[in-house]
Amino acid sequence: STNATEQASQIEQIVSESPDIVVLWPHDDTLKSAAQSFVDAEIPVIIYDRLLTDFDQVSEVMGDNEEIGRQTGEYFNEFFKDYETVNYVEFMGDNSSVPMQRSNGFAETIDDKFERHGQWSTGWQRAEGQRIMEEFMGTDEFANLDAIFTHDAEVALGVLTALEGYEGEHKVKLVSAVSEPKQLLAVIDHYADLGI
User: Fold this and answer.
1) How many whole angstroms separate alpha carbon 148 and alpha carbon 132?
2) Is the dihedral of CA 77, 95, 142, 193 positive or negative?
3) Is the pLDDT of residue 148 over 90?
4) Is 38 exposed, middle or buried (CB count within 10 Å of its CB: 0-12, 13-18, 19+)?
5) Would the pTM of this model clear 0.85, i.e. be above it?
6) Where are the beta strands (DSSP E) in 71-152?
7) Which terminus of the chain is more exposed, N or C, with fewer CB under 10 A?
8) Which helix (H) or strand (E) holds 193?
9) Is residue 60 pLDDT above 80, yes or no?
């Protein structure tokens, strides 16, 4: 499904088919009431990738998103160890548990010298990451931006595309990405050559 409303409708259809078990990859926490219809129909639910707050699932299968955030924070600390102040922005995926956990892990790990100057939800979309970055590049704050924390490689590719099109003098020193799909690995040297 492309959104939570469509997914809720699909859940209703699946409940009517009475499966033995369901693996649900919820868009976000707004699916909790729709997912409850599985529990009410005594259909076991395994939640994949995202948590539904206070939901009675059989099991959950997901990455350790807080640890992903912590490890990213540790990398930022090491990369910027010689800086007195580090200005950064954050590109989150959406309002689900995944970006909240990554953001929390990052925030609890980075040194006090890090100052966030923006945080946006991208819907995990490359085009949205690019659009937001292009808008931010038109602000006065961009001239002092050191780093960009993204929650996803797809979003990072959008941010990098925006930065590549920037014609000014300022260079962002670090753009992070979670996961390393072939598309990102194929262009990493290209962006490194641009000084990103």
Assistant:
1) 12
2) positive
3) yes
4) buried
5) no
6) 86-92, 114-121, 147-150
7) N
8) helix 182-193
9) no
